[in-house]
Specification:
The chain is of the alpha+beta class. It has four helices and three strands. It starts with a helix and ends with a strand.
C-alpha cells in the first residue's frame, strides 16, 4: 500500500502547456485573465464577461492553432 506522500510525489502539478498558452494569448490580446481547465477531450475557458467569451469563440481557429491540438474548446462565462 502506497502512502499518501508517495502517491503525491509522483503527481505532476505543473500547469499544462495548453493552459499557459491560452492564458498568455488572452492576456496579450485583451489584457484580461481567464481560467483554463484542460480535460481529456476538451479545454474549458472561463471568461469573466460574455463579451470576452464571445470574442474568444470567434477566434477559436486561432486558439486551436496556438495550442496545436484538436481538443474541443468550450467557452463559459464566469470564473
Amino acid at each position: 500500500m502506497d502512502s499518501l506522500n508517495e502517491i503525491l510525489s509522483r503527481k505532476d502539478f505543473d500547469e499544462p502547456a495548453e493552459a499557459v498558452a491560452i492564458k498568455k494569448y488572452v492576456r496579450e490580446q485583451f489584457d484580461e485573465s481567464v481560467a483554463v481547465t484542460v480535460r481529456e477531450r476538451d479545454i474549458i475557458i472561463a471568461a469573466p464577461s460574455a463579451a470576452l467569451a464571445s470574442t474568444l469563440r470567434m477566434r477559436v481557429l486561432a486558439l486551436q492553432r496556438l495550442i496545436g491540438e484538436k481538443k474541443r474548446l468550450v467557452f463559459r462565462v464566469g470564473k
